[in-house]
Specification:
Length: 202
């Protein structure tokens, strides 16, 4: 059911993918793909591998769930309007955007509120504001449920949380970007070379 409601890709866009791969190959720009793995997971894996190797990583994406990967050495270049309007997301700017939620808590936030674009259910009746309040107060999703009887949680919210616990836990899993995709890790594997400019402009 994950992403099941998404409309099919526009045929004109789909037809461009082989051409883009051909262009990148001509420019000697590495292409990373792994059967059965999402692009987000490959980005997440590259982010962590690069960080461990002492590199500063920039992830260019419009997906806000990628903010969970942000650290001092991994920043997200958030494309709000193509490349004409971008924001560099640091740990501080993620904290500011979500009013005190650190990057590590982004999956817990999505576990509660869900994400309609990816068909992630979240908890019925818990919107963005309530999810923010709960994560600000308790931190992790697990800790929210550990404090389910806290008076700060209203009776109706408690009812929804208990009824939808399985959905919340599933949403947390779906909203967590994996960092263990099976990709090449040899040093120099992703170095960009000179490429063939003549082939690229054909």
């Amino acid at each position: 059911q994950y992403k099941a409601q998404r409309p099919p890709m526009d045929p004109d866009l789909h037809a461009q993918f082989p051409m883009i791969k051909e262009l990148l190959a001509a420019l000697n720009v590495p292409i990373l793909q792994s059967e059965g793995w999402e692009g987000d997971d490959i980005l997440g894996t590259m982010a962590r591998l690069g960080e461990q190797a002492g590199c500063d990583m920039l992830l260019v994406t419009g997906d806000r769930d990628m903010y969970q990967l942000v650290t001092e050495h991994v920043n997200v270049v958030s494309t709000r309007k193509g490349l004409s309007d971008v924001a560099i997301m640091t740990p501080e700017s993620v904290d500011d955007l979500y009013h005190g939620i650190t990057p590590a808590l982004v999956p817990d936030f999505y576990g509660l509120k869900g994400d309609t674009s990816d068909n992630i259910p979240g908890v019925r009746g818990i919107g963005e504001k309530t999810a923010l309040n709960l994560v600000q107060k308790f931190g992790t999703l697990e800790n929210v449920y550990a404090h389910i009887d806290d008076p700060v949680i209203k009776p109706k919210q408690r009812e929804h949380l208990l009824e939808c616990k399985a959905d919340a836990e599933l949403s947390h899993v779906l909203g967590t970007i994996r960092t263990d995709a099976p990709i090449e890790t040899a040093e120099g594997a992703y170095k960009v070379g000179e490429g063939n400019k003549a082939a690229a402009v054909r």
